[in-house]
Design a protein that fits this description.
- The structure holds two protein chains of two kinds.
- In chain A, 25% of the residues lie in helices and 33% in strands.
- In chain A, the strands form four sheets. In chain A, strands 6-7-8-3-9-10 form a six-stranded mixed beta sheet, sandwiched between helices.
- Chain A is elongated and about 80 Å long.
- Chain A starts with 20 loop residues before the first strand and ends with a strand.
- In chain B, 79% of the residues lie in helices and 0% in strands.
- The chains are: A alpha+beta, B mainly alpha.
Chain lengths: 361, 298
């Protein structure tokens, strides 16, 4: 889905004006179940922000509130300086892409993309002329590389092609905000990677303010300018992929965005203790009591056995890239550690995390 | 079937010699036996009567057949049947679409009650429906004096027949559309809304085309029932010749008067209607299956 390069960049086709999106203390409950609990979020103009979270965390609900398909119980949604809470779905002018495409099955590719242009009246009350619609639809078909498919029906397209039609249809109306709800969720891995790259390139070119829902952390971290990690109707952390990966704000975020090891420890006088022994880690500024030591498999180094290390027994080993991945049995659990290929693959092993976090148990 | 035992017993030996015998392949005799029973039953119960209708209708020759259809009373009955269908079918189509929309797209209190109510005419005898209207709108009925004072004749007139027909045909369109709409979900409609379509545009450009085959199918069945309805119409019609007799009622009258040719000539029209309905239904189902296959394969 590489956009055809006509060298014109943003000037090649009028994409419409992208605005900042701001949510202020948005809450919404379905019956007794709260779907959103006081969410505030700011998306900058032209930014690609991923809403990342497990199913049921409220990310799709949040997207639908921005689209105007759901009305929050309280709080407000702003598009730039305009209170979007006062606007209907149609007036908000958002482009939405659905997980299951939601293409109009009785319309050709061409008619699907033209739909928004044909039903929408311009400010003067007139519709676009035939020629204007045609020019724009053809440009979009070229953009998503579906030349020659104009007369096909959705049933005759592959999943990846359908989603490109969905994207072109959403872009046709010069949306102020582009909303994508698990757009690659129904596609196989290869097509997904291609479309992911294509979307990033397309975004760099069109510069739409984009909100992107996914439960796939790899997708979010690779694609987004910033990631908002959601849990139970709240935003746990907003940050660049690097911030979310390196400085997870909570144990939940830490566990959700990558592979994780968790060790129950205790803090006594600023010293981290494991199994009643102090670990050779820098002192911490943290109240006394139990805590969880969290670190990633690749942030571990092998150290000589001794009092200050986490010692365990290797129970499984496999080659992974240049090194190897060991499974280490330690008192009270198991750890995954990535070590050099030369490290022993059986017997006892002592390790210490290079990068680690302490969270409440 | 008494002598069917011998070939059945011999069948396993023969099947073992046949090529490409699947685990669910039946002995040949059983297969043919079952098929023969099915054909026999269908023939005696369905095809034979159908043939008899046309045979009896044309027994007096084409001239007599045409003459009995052109008889003023027959023409009046045909006109009335067409009129009733022309009123009842569109109303039911509108009601069916509205009810299916409400049931499939919204969650509300009393939804199951609504679905049950839509099915009610299937479980109530049409005669009961007719009697209820008689009780409500008849001269001695609850609303009779009120209507009479305003010169409105419902029972033993066209409005009564339309009402009774509406009652018995209510489930057809809604029943057809509810599962179709439920399966489709709301995604298409939401997509259309975000693209700027008004409520009416969403309905006419997206929802209606999505359910068009189901709707047509429901309308077809509804029409067949509306034109063929006997019980409810019979109660409220009053059997006024040339005025309140629909085709099925006229058939009964002619039959009771031993006017065989005329009775069967009119009956042949209803038989023809059912044949046409079945053919269109088969064609629609074929289209639908093809469309679904195309969708799944893509």
């Amino acid at each position: 889905m590489r956009p055809a390069d006509d060298g014109a960049g943003r000037g090649g086709l009028d994409w419409g004006e992208s605005v900042a999106v701001r949510l202020e203390d948005v809450s919404l409950a379905f019956g007794v179940a709260a779907a959103l609990r006081g969410v505030s979020l700011q998306v900058e103009p032209g930014e690609l922000l991923a809403l990342l979270g497990p199913s049921g965390s409220g990310k799709t609900t949040l997207l639908r509130v921005v689209a105007g398909l759901l009305t929050p119980d309280s709080g407000s949604v702003w598009f730039g300086d305009e209170d979007a809470s006062q606007l209907s779905v149609q007036q908000r002018n958002v482009g939405m892409v659905f997980q299951h495409y939601a293409l109009f099955r009785h319309m050709s590719v061409y008619d699907n993309i033209a739909f928004g242009l044909r039903v929408r009246r311009r400010r003067g009350g007139a519709r676009l002329s035939r020629e204007e619609v045609d020019a724009r639809v053809r440009a979009l078909i070229e953009l998503v590389q579906l030349q020659g498919m104009e007369r096909r029906y959705p049933a005759q397209l592959s999943g990846g092609q359908r989603q490109r039609v969905g994207l072109a249809r959403a872009l046709a109306i010069k949306p102020r905000v582009l909303l994508l709800d698990e757009p690659f969720g129904a596609l196989d891995a290869k097509v997904r990677r291609d479309l992911r790259r294509g979307l990033r390139e397309l975004h760099d070119r069109t510069g739409h303010t984009t909100l992107f829902v996914t439960h796939d952390q790899e997708e979010a971290l690779e694609l987004a300018d910033r990631v908002a990690v959601m849990r139970d109707g709240r935003v746990e952390q907003v940050g660049t992929p690097a911030e979310v990966l390196d400085r997870p704000a909570s144990r939940f975020v830490f566990e959700f965005v990558g592979e994780s090891n968790l060790l129950p420890v205790a803090v006594r006088g600023g010293v981290v203790e494991w199994q009643g022994r102090a670990l050779s880690l820098p002192r911490v500024d943290r109240p006394e009591g139990p805590a969880v030591l969290a670190f990633r498999p690749h942030d571990v180094e092998v150290v000589p056995a001794g009092d200050g290390a986490v010692e365990g027994t290797v129970v499984a080993a496999r080659r992974a890239g240049a090194g190897q991945r060991l499974e280490l049995a330690v008192p009270g659990g198991r750890l995954d550690v990535d070590v050099p290929a030369a490290a022993p693959t059986a017997g006892g092993l002592a390790v210490l995390p290079r990068v680690w976090h302490l969270y409440d148990p | 079937m008494a002598d069917g035992g011998a070939p059945l017993a011999a069948a396993p030996r023969r099947t073992s010699q046949r090529r490409r015998v699947g685990p669910i392949a039946e002995p040949r005799a059983l297969k043919w036996g079952l098929t023969a029973v099915a054909v026999l039953v269908l023939g005696v119960l369905l095809l034979l009567p159908l043939a008899v209708v046309f045979f009896e209708a044309l027994r007096g020759g084409v001239g007599a057949y045409v003459a009995s259809l052109l008889d003023p009373e027959a023409r009046s009955a045909i006109r009335l049947t067409l009129l009733v269908a022309a009123i009842a079918v569109p109303l039911n189509a509108v009601f069916g679409v509205a009810a299916a929309w409400a049931v499939a797209k919204f969650e509300f209190r009393g939804k199951s009650v609504l679905v049950t109510l839509i099915d009610l005419p299937f479980s109530v005898s049409p005669v009961i429906a007719g009697l209820v209207y008689l009780l409500l709108f008849g001269a001695q009925g609850y609303l009779g004096p009120f209507l009479q004072a305003r010169g409105l004749q419902v029972v033993f007139a066209v409005p009564g027949i339309v009402l009774a027909t509406l009652f018995v045909t209510v489930p057809f369109v809604a029943r057809e559309l509810i599962p179709v709409m439920q399966e489709l979900g709301n995604d298409d409609e939401e997509a259309a809304l975000t693209l700027g379509a008004s409520g009416w545009q969403v309905f006419s450009l997206v929802t209606l085309p999505n359910v068009r085959w189901g709707l047509l199918y429901g309308v077809l069945l509804c029409n067949a029932r509306a034109m063929g309805e006997f019980g409810a119409a019979s109660v409220v019609s009053g059997h006024i010749r040339g005025q309140t007799n629909t085709v099925p009622l006229q058939v009964e009258i002619l039959y009771n008067e031993y006017n065989w040719v005329a009775a069967f000539a009119l009956a042949s029209l209803l038989a023809l209607l059912s044949l046409v309905t079945l053919v269109i239904k088969a064609v629609l189902e074929r289209r639908d299956a093809l469309a679904k296959a195309g969708h799944a394969a893509g």
